[in-house]
Amino acid sequence: MSAARFKKMLALALAYLVIVAFCVVEMLPIYWVVITSFKTNLEIFGGHPLMPPFSKATLDNYAYVFKETGTSGVAVASYLKNSLIVTTCTIAITMVVGTLAAYGLARFRMRGRSLMAMLFLVVRMVPAMAVGIPVYHMVRSLELLNTHFALILVYSAFLTPFVIWMMRGFLMDIPAELEDSARIDGCNRLQAFWHVTVPMAAPGLMATATFTFLGAWNEYIFASLLTSTPDAQTTTVLIAGQISFDQVYWGRIAAIATVLIVPAVVFIRFMQRYLIQGLTMGAVKE
Amino acid sequence: MSRTSTNRRTFLKKTAAATAALTLTPTLGFPNLHLKPYAGRSLTIYQQASPIFEGAFELFQPYFEDLTGAKISFVSIPVADMGQQIALSLTADKGEMDLTWYYAVYPLVLQGLVQPIDDFIKDPNLTPPKWDFADYLPGALESGRVDGRLYNLSVTANALAFYYRTDKIADAGFVDEQGRAVPPVTWDDVQRYGQALDARRDKPLLLMYSPNGTQCTQIWLSLWLSQDYTYIWDQNGKCIVNNADGLVVTRLLKDLLKWASPTNVTWDFPEAHAAFQQGRGAMLPQWNNLGGIYNDPANSLAAGKLSMAPWPRIKVSASDAGHWYSLIAANSPDKELAWVLVREYNSYAWQKKFFLNSAVNFNPSRKSVYDDPEVKAAYPWIHAIRDSNNNGRGQQTRTLEWDAVQLVLQEELGPYVTDETNDAQQVLDRIAARVDEITRASGRFKG
Amino acid sequence: MPDARTTPWLFMTPSIVLLLAVVGYPVLLGFKLSLYDWQLATIGQERYVGLANYIELIDNERLWGSIEFTLFYALAAVCIEIVLGTALALLLNQPIRGMRFFNTLLLAPIALSPVAVGVTWKFFLNADYGTMTFLLQEFGIADYQTWLVQKSAAPWVLIGIDAWWSLPFVTVILLAGLKSLPPEPFEAAQIDGARSWQSFFYITLPLLRPVYLVVLVIRVMDALRVHELVFVLTQGGPGRSTSSLSFLIWQTGFKLREMGNATAIGMAFLVFIVLLTAVLTKLLDRQISEVRN
Predict the structure, then answer these.
(1) Does any domain span residue B403?
(2) Higher pLDDT among residues B107 and C153, named by residue
């Protein structure tokens, strides 16, 4: 008995050891980026790479990021603004459009239902670069290159299937009877959907919106193809371009990276409950 | 404000002969600029988002707006997106861009999207009759000539040159009678210096050899040009590098690594740049417009100990030259005004001012500026910039095929530099075969 | 009043319109453009060349190299992630205190933009100043590494970064799957004297099959489209050892200006992905309904 107990304890200790090590490995580069963003160039090249800068910490890198134009003419703040505008609008559009479709798929048994579900899934799988050039060509002939609108449109289209799949899962969990009783009380379908189903699906909506946020906020390929100046370009493109800059301002790049990373990580923290459903498009539940 | 008007006065004085034409020509162009013939007009310029251009034209903008009454607006574009943006504006019905500074002119010229400037030059109202073309660096002028027509007066001219640290070279004993450091003249010298310096301290040579970047191919190309070639293919499009000269160059490329730290194979432009600023090496083959940055005590430990030599020789001293062309859009409604602007910044006064005042040396395209006493006093290595620019051979990079060829060079030379393969002959044979394929496919050559 | 047959379609109309316009139309346009010889600067003067762009693909050395790398990358990354993820999930399937906290930490990489991941690792692996070099020296393993420029090492570096990025995702999902398994079969097996590896292979794996399948599909599809890591870290080099299909399309189209060729590669890639998705979703759909029931 005590041998089995010992074995159990050993396994548990090992589990703790592994999970701590695992977390260290996963967090190390992120931790490093964050502390680097508070260092001066001198500290970065001369100091201990994994030590926080303590008393020598500087906010210069962040001052650069949030200033309207930097020394090399790169208006970092305007890239952040673009990211925010595009992301917000994309969330708004995809959530409305996607949730409606998800409702249609979740509540009705009609011909072609599974085919539609599959078609939506196929769009989720399409690699952005495979269709990047024709999308570029289309946006160009509409004279929408380098506009927020083009990015919003494209992001919305490519993220909608994701919303549909995720919301379908949440909506299927809400009993249809509640809506039915609302309809008996005189609501029409849309009213019942709006007044009964949507409030009940609120957590799911929040979770889905979070993932839409991540999708749009982190997107690079379409942003790099469809935008070219600080008027519409997003932070991901800025950061990829900074790499080949004449001067290596690691601190600044780390600060931009931190600004890009932090909102995403914070969102994940709050949406942890729905994370797995989100990441697997509702196919697996926690 | 007062400085601006002094500039204008000197400018007008310098072109006194042309001013005489003022009374004869009632049209609005040169030199009636004091009548503000372009008031209310505006120019949109696409410029590279970098301190090089932004710094220089910050100075120029108020001067020009005051001079002509026209407004300039700049659109700063990351260099990676410039080609795409320029092509977009040039092919649009109503392009936004009137003028841009860019290095790849050839494809655009071939499609008739760039305005030739011969007519502007011939027009005495737009160009002073005494405009001295002989004063331009041959490359700065000739590289913009396609099928007999001139499309460009380069805004600035660069070539690869050889930076070195006077203190470290002198310490190693390479000095003249006065005890001043003597730079290497040939690549054999570079190796000799390398050996001597290497024995004393850190690896002395800083090289940009990353097979994931483009600088390694640029250095290899400049070594090849030093064997006194202008192209890597002949007029029939046949690649000619797989000969004895090519073998020497390719082996030299790798031999140089002996005097560089092994991590140099991971370096592209930014890494080498930073290393030199941090005082890590004694010698750096690099573009010749960075003296200002390297000599800035706030940013560089090499400051005060810096000098530059022309590109070391094999047979000749010739490196890859890169010009930033002034491209006037053929679809611009203000081509004439754009030319006035190009002409203005190509004046002696402005070429000098750019060079002395911008954060990065904006190398003059006019030869006489290099002999200016003020310029000479500010930059003791000015002769090295002049010589490397004068001897630079950059025709390769303006051909349509260059992007594809450079990628081939990158793919073939990379594994050789990183020791995946050691057979230089095989590397050259593969390069030759693949370049032949590219030139054949382009259909521009007879062979 | 719409009837029950049209109502669901009314709900779906906005998304169908959006997808047809922004995904469907470009796909059709893409097939058309792939039949033309065109460049960015010659838009409006495209030259019809029939299937020439596709025929050229057959002896395009770069394409075959890219296919090879992309498949290798996806396979290797996903295998590593699933094997390691399984091991970790089994080990962590114990009453660990603060699992919620660990989960939060572990899932942070998932929230990262691929570009941010690339940039972070680019600096982390810098041979002169990078933390990796520092760690190697600290532990006396080596003075420096030049992995990103070594033909044999660079693909593995990218695979490693992919694993770093996605392993937590795989682990957490498999762990959730494990925790949701009913205890009865395991108890029965224990009574029958089954060894733990036996109950893993004969009970755990079959029960977790649908979860594995979901993970597999999502990870394979995401790994096959890799672009940002390649773009930021290696630019497809050294040689062409890390040129993914997405990167090749970008390079052919925007660097070499062969838009027709690039579109043809894109369309071929698209067809491959759609077929693969169709096959996998057939499997997946069945499994999903099993998970859901």
Answers:
(1) no
(2) C153
- Look up tokens 């003075």; give the residue: C143
Gap between the Cα atoms of B418 and B412, Å rounded: 11
Residue of A nearest to C283 (CA): A118
The mean pLDDT value of chain A amounts to 84
State the nearest Cα–Cα gap between B414 and chain C, in angstroms.
Answer: 6
Q: Where are the alpha helices (DSSP H) in A142-175?
A: 148-172
Domain that holds residue B49: 6-158+322-391
**Residue A256 with chain B: CB contacts under 8 Å:** none
Higher pLDDT: C25 or C99? It is C25
Chain C residues within 8 A of B113 when measuring between CB atoms? 41
Question: Looking at per-residue confidence, does B4 or C4 come out higher?
Answer: C4
Same domain for B134 and B11: yes
CATH number, domain of B386, equals 3.40.190.10
Radius of gyration (C-alpha) of chain C in whole angstroms? 24
Domain-located, residue B422: no
Chains A, C: CB contacts under 8 A, how many? 296
Which residue is closest to C175 within chain A, CA to CA?
A286
Same domain, yes or no, for B272 and B339? no
DSSP B260: B
Residues 100-119 on B with a CB inside 8 Å of C are: 107-108, 111, 113
* Strand, helix or coil for residue C145: coil
Residue A247 has a pLDDT of 61
pLDDT in tens, B150-160: 898 888 888 99
Q: Are B169 and B293 contained in the same domain?
A: yes
Contact A244 B269 (CB under 8 A): yes
| B416 close to B424: Cβ distance less than 8 angstroms | yes
- Find the residue in B nearest to A227 (Cα): B81
In a domain, B283, yes or no: yes
As a whole number, the mean pLDDT across chain B is: 84
pLDDT in tens, B279-298: 889 999 999 988 888 888 88
Residues B140 and B33 in one domain: yes
Q: Which of B340, B375, B391 is the last residue of a domain?
A: B391
Structural domains present in chain A: 3-63 (no CATH), 76-279 (1.10.3720.10)
Check whether residue B166 and residue B30 sit in a common domain. Answer: no
Kindly list the residues of chain B whose beta carbon comes within 8 Å of any beta carbon in chain A: 49-52, 54, 75-78, 80-81, 84-85, 88, 268-271, 273-274, 278
Phi/psi at B168 (nearest 5 deg)? -70, -40
Say what the pLDDT of residue B27 is. 37
pLDDT of residue B32: 63
The residue that leads in pLDDT, A109 or B164, is B164
Interface contact A145, partner B, CB < 8 A: yes
Chain B CB within 8 Å of residue A72 CB: yes
pLDDT over 90 for what percent of chain B?
39
The rounded distance, in Å, linking the Cα atoms of B74 and C272 is 44
The answer to whether the CB of B260 falls within 8 A of the CB of B418 is: no
Rounded Cα gap, residues C263 and B2, in angstroms: 57
Q: Mean pLDDT for chain C?
A: 88
List of chain C residues whose C-beta atoms are within 8 Å of the C-beta of residue A130:
225, 246, 249, 266-267, 269-270, 273
CATH topology of domain C48-292: MetI-like fold (1.10.3720)
The answer as to whether B288 is a domain residue is yes
CA distance C247 to C227: 5
Written as six digits, the tokens of C262 are 């690039």
B420 interfacial to chain C (CB closer than 8 Å): yes
Same domain? For B152 and B183 the reply is no
Count: domains in chain B: 2
Domain boundary among B391, B410, B440: B391
> Can you give the length of chain B in residues?
447
Residues B12 and B153 in one domain: yes
Q: Are residues B15 and B153 in the same domain?
A: yes
Nearest alpha carbon to residue B208 among B297, B140, B290? B290
